[in-house]
User: What shape does this take?
Amino acid sequence: MAGRILPVADRAQVRAYARRLTLKYPKELGLALSLHALAAIAGLASPRLLGELVQGVADGSRDVDVDTVALAIAGFVVVQAVLVRFAVYASSRLGEKVLAELREDFVDQVLALPLSTVERAGSGDLITRTSRDVDALSRSVRHAVPETLIAVVTCVFALGALLLVGPIMAVPCLVAVPLIWISTRWYLKRATDGYLRENAAYADMTEGLAETVEGARTVEALGIESRRHRRTDGDIAKSFAAERYTLGLRMIWFPTVEIGYVIPVVATLLLGGLFLSEGWVSLAQVTAATLYVQQLIDPLDRVLSWMDELQVGGASMARLLGVVNVPDDRVAGDERPRGEELEATGVTYAYREGHDVLHGIDLDVRAGERLAMVGPSGAGKSTLGRLLAGIHGPRTGSVTVGGVELVELPLDELRGHVALVTQEHHVFRGSLRDNVLIGRPDATDDEVRRALEAVDAWEWTQALDKGLDTIVGSGGETVSPAQAQQLALARLVLADPHTLVLDEATSLIDPREARHLERSLAAVLEGRTVIAIAHRLYTAHDADRVAVVEDGRVSELGSHDELVAAGGAYAALWDSWHGKGR
Amino acid sequence: MTMTSLPAADPGTPDTRSPFRYLWWVALAQKWPLAIGIGMAILWWLAQALVPAALGRAIDALAGNRMAELVQWSAVILGLGVIQAVTGVLRHRFAVLTWLGAAYRTVQVTARQATRLGATLPKRLSTGEVVSVGNSDIAHIGNAMDVLLRGTGALVAIGTVTVILLATSPPLGLIVLVGVPLMAAAVGPLLRPLHRRQHAQRDLQGNLATRASDIVGGLRVLRGIGGEELFSSRYRGESQEVRRAGVRVASVESALEGAQILLPGVLIAAVTWLGAHFALDGRISPGQLVSFYAYAAFLIAPLRTITEAADKLTKGHVAARRVCRILSLDPEIGGGTGTLPAEAASDVLLDAESGVAVRPGRLTALVTAVPEEAAAIADRLGRYTPGEVTLGVVSLAELPINEVRRHILVADNAARLFTGRLRDELDVRGAATDDDVRLALHAACADDIVEALPDGLDARVAEAGREFSGGQQQRLRLARALTADPEVLVLVEPTSAVDAHTEARIADRLGKARAGRTTLVCTTSPLVLDRADLVVFVEDGKVRAEGSHRELLDAEPGYSAVVTRGEG
Assistant: This one.
């Protein structure tokens, strides 16, 4: 099974990238930060002014100008509100910009993944990275990063204001620092894994539901309703266990930090009273300090509550950046092919070290010939097909086109020579035309039509309401797997490389229709070299030569008639298929 | 405190008469955690609501230099803080429990409904519709429960503060009480454009995410024949659209942030101004001035919770409506109440419309000129669509549907593998021995697939078998059908995606694996047809001829045209 074969970036790499990204737009960042700082300063004026008022009132002095102070409070509020408006806007705009850049970079890196990695990796891991990790990172960049920055700025200024009120009034705050510090460290150490597990369990649960829904008919047919219920309940139990773990963490952390918030308020009051009675501070200072300490709670709470989100974002970033770490699988040389002959000599190949699946294959494919490869499943046909298409390089031996190793050709050049179509049938979101045009973006409608006709797809595409403009793929018109295979072939007809490797490229098409398709395709591909890995014997019958692959070796090679005459394994199979006894 | 254990063993029967009734049903199912949670939320809010009052008293003590009183009120503040911390976390605990309880229960009843609908589901609902219950609706229903709890507490807190304020200073109290809701309502006009823009942004973002998975899904194609630049530039274009939509959201959002500082701030300034005058006149104490200031600031939070509650309850209602729609559907094909007599169980299965008769204990092959005909006949024989089908003297329509399913298994290529341990996924009825499974794998020529897995039969089938090739999936599905070992097995094109070598082996082994059982194979493969006991040829929906493969090849030109594709 394809496991997690894509790498994950290390911490240093994530940090370096985050730093580069942060400092990439110094002007925008500077603007956003200074606006936030100014807004924070404006927000700190009210408690100070209120402190003055309380002092004046307590002293019973008539000379405190209540109206001016109240007006000043209002004025600072207005200034703060306006600054916040622009600060939030500036930081969001910067965040969106950085975020767009991040995801675009990632998609470009995905699009540049080496061929061999793409072929080998299950799509699961990559899909998780593109959906879940991009989402998690978006949350971080959109909310966690700016909120944390703002909260940190606010905290710093509130502390600064506190120090300005009187350095001694900052002392009571220190009482709570160890409590908050230790409990938060304890929590964060466990939280990220806990939340990741929680998300994974949640995803399993929705996947399980999706499976039940998509397979509803199968569930009914096999009578496995109660099994599916058990699966659902099992998923829920796992999700609940994960939720209970993080809830347990919060059950300890939340009250601890909350008590950590209230202690400084109480300490400020008590110590303030003491200092006041000693005559070290004024009533105004104690009042302002108490309000500042209360004002510290909110931003501090925000910083702490975004911490785990930031950690999750960091983990997602590591997985996104990891895609860059996939080493390239080919080093392009300068040589260019002379001719179209495809030649495999002494080819061996192993997916796992020490387990060769191909054992010294020699095969010359003549330019313009139609070669069919048949053989039992697991014999190595598809592997050989991928080697002949230049996707993997052989472990030993060589696969060349016109005398040049396939894996030493630059990708663009390689595509001009050989292309592979497998039984995979992905339909891209977009119009039918777009789906075919991928093969050659500058093709005309006429050429698209001819390509579709060659694969027997013209009729059904025209039966659709909007013809070639019909939107297909996820969210669009449903295209059957068989029709999807036709589109894949039409794409290839347009791309028009001189050699095509078709790996079960018509397997999903009804046997009654597949043969007609193959014949009309053959007419269009006249003069092209076609290597068809086939499970239907008429494909072999219609080919120029047949290669029988068994146990990683070519056991028989020759024209259909020669092989039938030779009376080997192929002949036996053919007779049986053709209803002529064994 | 003991933890409720989830999920419920039996989620019960939901009330689907209306969305509100559904929500009520969900709430009632967890009335205790919900009630305790509401109690905790009330205490939590109250503890917060009393802090400004205590703070005011403490300041007064400070101003009057009354140390004993200061210590006393400081202790009260600390006590309120501790109560807040304890009730806060308990409230959180019960909020999480009710959230999860509601979400899990909804998943349970939805999954059970999906299995109840069975083959009817794909005809009446799109997969996305049902899956979005798991992806988003459960969150909305959970949120509705959570906010019910916090909202109730917030209402109580607002009431309490009202009483305290009016008791302390009626005019100041009135200003706060009228002013705070006014200020909260004043940001209302900003909410509508905000929600609209957020909605637009979410849609675009959803499209972008689909585009990205589209690229990943089709990466082999793109890396194989090109088109990367095209897709990269498309992605960039859409990504920039999402960015612009995000900036549009931010422009409203930032205005809202500003307004949320400005409006309460102005109110606080007004309260401070009036309060200071009152304090100077001796109508209130300096400490009470601080309390009013703190109350005006505090009230914002419960008011926001009330607004949030209105929003979340509405969304919960909408989600419950979607869930109700799914839950209130019924399966298309109903069953009878008859019983299957033992002798009928081993009798001929006859489809009156086409005349196809499946003989007991034999391997019959069905060849049709067009593939749709075979599928239609298979569906009738398995009673997935209504039809006049009899098993001996009994009509299938008279039998309970699960009895029919147990007796007749239709295995087609749309069938799915499920995620799980391979051994379990093959032996779905749980009645097979290891030998049975091995024999079925052998008959389906799937033993090599299992051998290639590092853990063999204990390997986990991931992603519903998507990691297997099409041919491998088909063989595993065949092995699964054979392991289930039903009295009557109807196989639709079971070898269409395997190579000729393998097909020949399967054809050889199938008869033996089904010896003594009734089997119908819809196929056009000569390899399989040649090994069938009897071949039935259907044209234009009716049986045209019956006989052995060779007899039909010789006698029926229509048959040989279908089977050999003009190969002659």
